[in-house]
Amino acid sequence: MAQYDTVDRILDAAEELFADRGFSETSLRMITSKAKVNLAAVNYHFGSKNALIHAVFARFLTPFSATLENAFDDLEARCDGAPPTLNQTLWALTESAVRMPQRNEKGISIFMRLLGLAYTQSQGHLRKFLEQEYSQPFSRFMRLLKEATPQLSSVDRYWRIQFMLGATAFTMSSSDALRDILQNKLGVETTVQEIAARLVPFLAAGMQAEDAMLVPPAHKSSVA
Amino acid sequence: MAQYDTVDRILDAAEELFADRGFSETSLRMITSKAKVNLAAVNYHFGSKNALIHAVFARFLTPFSATLENAFDDLEARCDGAPPTLNQTLWALTESAVRMPQRNEKGISIFMRLLGLAYTQSQGHLRKFLEQEYSQPFSRFMRLLKEATPQLSSVDRYWRIQFMLGATAFTMSSSDALRDILQNKLGVETTVQEIAARLVPFLAAGMQAEDAMLVPPAHKSSVA
DNA sequence: TTGCCGGTCAAACGTATGTTTCAAACAGAC
DNA sequence: GTCTGTTTGAAACATACGTTTGACCGGCAA
Predict the structure, then answer these.
(1) Residues A133, A76 contacting (CB under 8 angstroms)
(2) For A33-52, how does the pLDDT look when each residue is reduced to its tens digit (9 = 90+)?
(3) What's the longest Cα–Cα distance across chain B?
């Protein structure tokens, strides 16, 4: 009993501190003192700081990837053989994320920020862990994207997927700070759901942009 | 003479290492040994590690913001009172970046990654430094964006600008790795200019997307 | 009661970090 | 050549980190 309490308290504290400050910038001493457990508890229960980072991700990502697979199953069943549209695919992803059971009110936004950091901070071990642990839903998502944008060349699609990833990871990774700025400047409250609702149309439109490729500066004007 | 050599060697090494590994993950010893200078040289010439980080940014950003202001001047002069279009504004920015005199072949992509890190790694001192040092060209760019997208609400525009920033910083920041992958998988060579040429249409389309806001999942289909 | 074992705790370990020190080397002016 | 201020160099500084240790506690089976 008591030990699960300790384990979860560590995970909760670590999740929040990592999201606030990054991985390298968060020490085990900060985590254990926030969690009100002994310093040695982390290495006792998890083995190392890196393993703790993995555990923080696994606690969210394992149920999420199951939810996501179900959402893709449903989507493909509903489409009855025809490939799902881009919008449908993107919504399946964001809905799965938003509908995850949340530990607290910050829940999803904390985790989005963590995913952004995972991509940004080049923590080799983390990337390796995520790739070999969750490659299946990732590949499936990529396949759906490909089938939803048959008009794109492989190269175009490749780059535009990177653009989508970037907009998402980057926005989510700084979403707390951005929300604060927005609230101070414009006095508007914003939830992760609302950000997602703004992000998806942006991504879909960019993904399906007319290809003005290799048209250099065009010193006059040329809005699509 | 000799001291400028030292200063520049430190800046070069720091720039590359910061871009590769992040700020906290790069120690002064890594920097000085890569630069082949004495450890104490950093604190002697710059005062502190944080001041070195600022100097790395200033070395690129100061001439860049001058170039950018000129590009905006030209653009507004050419438009003769009418507000420049979104495409023109984005091209002015990317052209200024691409045309910057580059210290080496990696040049611009290294710096894009640094800008991404500056936003992501919550190094308070860095954000403060950038904000108070380069607020003018930044505000001007924001104003141009606003005039180029009068149909957007302030909140929509705010978020879409974040999405653009994210797609750009993220893509450019990992463009070396991405280019390698692309070359291996598809046998295609890619330059930063070509990436920019793909990115701008994507951003412009996303920025001008029809606002499907707050239209939830829409279980059927709804590609614009 | 005894013995054990998972869990906690304070303390220490070794290492790496940013920064400082101070003597030596150097350059240019007189 | 000598002096003066600047730049380098090797070494040390204090501090923070992740990790390990060994004593200690509490419940439970024998």
Answers:
(1) no
(2) 999 999 999 999 999 999 99
(3) 69
